[in-house]
Every structure is written in structure tokens, then in C-alpha cells.
Protein: Glycerate kinase
Amino acid sequence: MKILVAPDSFKESLSASEVARAIASGIERCLPQAQCKLLPFSDGGEGAFEVLGALNLGKCIAVETQDPLGRALTAPYFEFADSKTVWIELSQASGLALLKPEEQNPLNTSTYGTGLQIRHALERGKEHIILGIGGSATHDVATGIFNALGGKLLDANGNTLDASGATLEKCRAINAENLVPELKSSRFTIACDVQNKLTGIHGAAFIYAAQKGATPDIIDRLERATVRFGTMLEKETEKKILDQEGGGAAGGTAAGMLAFTDAELKNGFDILAELTGLEDQIKQADLIITGEGRTDDQSTFGKVPFKIAALAQKHRKPVLLYSGGVTADPQVLMDCGFTGAFAIKTEAMTLEYAKKNAARLLSDKVAHTLKDFI
Structure:
């Protein structure tokens, strides 16, 4: 029997690779004769490097860069073997996790460090940049990236500005004359899994800025500044970004990249699925097992296990879900293609205990339940 194990991470507990190994351990205890293929997965945001590395598709390159507040930082990007393609995660140099809670304020942060990573890759001859944009600390509409690539932001008097959320209030023009020449022969793919536009009640400021340390007053400032900046940017670049679905992702990074680089927005899961041959591996398997940290009614909106279940359903393959906790409607899970769904946390357990012992609990749950579906 061929079993494909393709889980997401259990956030704050196990990486996707650790989840896959725990599931495989349970399978071995229950069905020692089974052939297991481990494919830890991600939605294309944080965790993509782990997926790519697990498949030996390339290696990580460490780059001297900056964090969201301009402090020195060494951060990696993923270089594909025998290819001119790299995968850069915005969170590695511009991520919220790099800042202490008291430092988090999107008025003060920028994507400049990510821009330095992009520049490093371009100057090494890389021509295709895949940019995963989850987990950012920023709301600068990719102006930091623009700065790092040689672009200038100008105020009403023609003075040069450093990128940040607050700079959006002052910027009245851009100057792209000194952008690095390698940009002309490059292309960008933005791994983006949200539909939010740049501005409005469902835009970058109102939906995401609070998570990055913004108070209600700061959110209002960012919204007004982003509307003004976005309008200016449309005129300067002759590109429509304000109404672009997904443009609000990562503090407007997606919209900015569309304006500055002719980037293409693409679903992050779909990019990884294509790179890893996920659908072909599902076709070849007799059973698919996936997992995530928590499965609730929001999980149906594009999360990894549900996308894997959709592919399994397409090819009439059974798929089991193992999750830290399951509160989603059982009928919804069945309709989405799951043959069975199991939680490793019982009502008697504390969340802390479940997280600390997740690998063992997951292995045990698989070992005790799998035979019922064979």
C-alpha cells in the first residue's frame, strides 16, 4: 500500500516535517508493510523553504541584510538547483516575528531588508524571483524593496525619503531611473493567498495593520496615506493597483510589486504544488494523509489540508485528516473530500500539554485509527 503523507505544520508546536515524521511513525506501528512518501507542505508563505529543502530541490543562501527596523540581520533565501530561480520569504527579513511586541508599529517598519535579498539574487544572475509574502511586520507598499533596488521616493520638495509606513504620508513622486539593470531581464511571481485589495474596509490597513502593532489612529493614518500613495503610484506607473485583488497582501507589498516590477500574483499553494508534483504524487498513492494545527470552519478557506483533499477527491483517493483540534462541521469535512478526521487533543488535555506532546499524541492517534480505513 502506498501512502502519501502531506501535512502542514502544527503552529507553535511542530514543523511540517515533524508532523510528517510523527504520522509516518504511527503508520509504521499500524501498517509496517506500507510504503510511505513524506511530503511536508505549506501554503507558500512561511514554511515554503522546509518543503523545498525536504525534496532536495536546492539550498538556502544566507545574505547580510536588515530587519524591518534597519538593524543588521543575516537571512536566507532558497536557491533552486541548476536554475535561475530563487524563493524569497518576506518574513525572513521583514517579518513580524523579528520584532519585540513593543517594537511593532507599521509606521516605522519597511521591506528594505527583503529588497536587499532580492538585489543579492539578481546580482548573482537569478532571473526569476518567487516572493512569498506571509508574516510581514510592514505596511510600506513595497517601497522598501523599491529603495533597495535603486528606486527613490520623493517628497513635495523633491527630497529623498527612506521607506516606511509613515513615508507613504509624505511621498509625492517616485524616481525609477537608477533601478538595478538586472531588473530588465527578471520576472517576479508573488505567492499570494489573500484576495484583499490595497485600500478600503477590507484592505491592507483595516484588515492587517492591527496585527502588526497599529492602534486605531495609526490604522486611519495608514489608510489615508495608502489611498493617496496608491493613487499617485497608478499615475506614475500607469498601472491599476488600487482595485487589484490580492494587492493588499503583506501591507500592500503585492500591489507595490505589481507597480514596480510587473509581477504576477499566483496562489502560493499552487506554486508549491507545481514545483513538487503534488497532483501526480496523489494519483500514485492509495491513501493520502494530511494534517494541520487546528481545523475549524475557517479552515475551508484555502488552507493546505482542504486543498489537498480537493485534489484527492478529484482523483477519487481516500484522504485522512489529523489535526491538533477539530471543530469544523463533520458534514462540511465530508463534503470537502475527507474520509475521516481526527483530533489529537482530547477535552481532558490542556492546550499546553497537547502542544508539548504533539508528536507522540499524533503518532498514537494514527496508530490507533488507521486500520479502520484500510
Q: What stands out?
A: The chain has a mean pLDDT of 94.
